[in-house]
C-alpha cells in the first residue's frame, strides 16, 4: 500500500476543527502508521485597512481538508467518521487520490519549500493611492499587475502629464 493525498469535504468554517479532531483520533486510535499529514491549504494575502498593510491567511478551498494517508478500510473509517467530515471527494464508493502535480499545485510552498508571494486584490483599471515612497499621496490607475514580482505599474498625473510608475504592492492602497 502506498500513501496518497485525499481531499475530504467538511462543513464550511469547520476545517481547522476537523483537522484538530482528526489529529486526536489518529493518535487515540493508533493510526499514525496509516494517516500521516492533515492540512488546510492556506495562502497569505496582503490586506490594506485604514492605510495599514497586514498579511492575512485565508483558506484556499473553504470546506475542504487534505489528508495524506494509506487508504485501508480502517483508515477510511477513522477519517469518514470524524465529527465535521461529510465525506471524501471522489466519484463512486472509493475515494480518488490526488495526482502528484495536483498536490504540488494546491499546497505550493507547503511541500516544495519555495515561498509564494502573497496574493493581492489589485486589478488592472483599479483606482489606487500611493501610500509610501517618493510618490506618496499621488493617485492613479493600475495599468499592469506583476504578481510574480509583487509590483504594479500605475499611471499617475504629474505636472499635467500621465506618468507611469512601477511600485510594490505594499506601496499602494485602494481608493475609498
Automatic annotation (TrEMBL):
Keywords attached to this entry: Transcription, Transcription antitermination, Transcription regulation, Transcription termination
SMART domains in alphabetical order: KOW, NGN
Classification via Gene3D superfamilies: 2.30.30.30, NusG, N-terminal domain
Superkingdom as given in the UniProt entry: Bacteria
SUPFAM superfamilies: N-utilization substance G protein NusG, N-terminal domain (SSF82679), Translation proteins SH3-like domain (SSF50104)
Function: Participates in transcription elongation, termination and antitermination.
Similarity annotation: Belongs to the NusG family.
Protein name per UniProt: Transcription termination/antitermination protein NusG
Gene: nusG
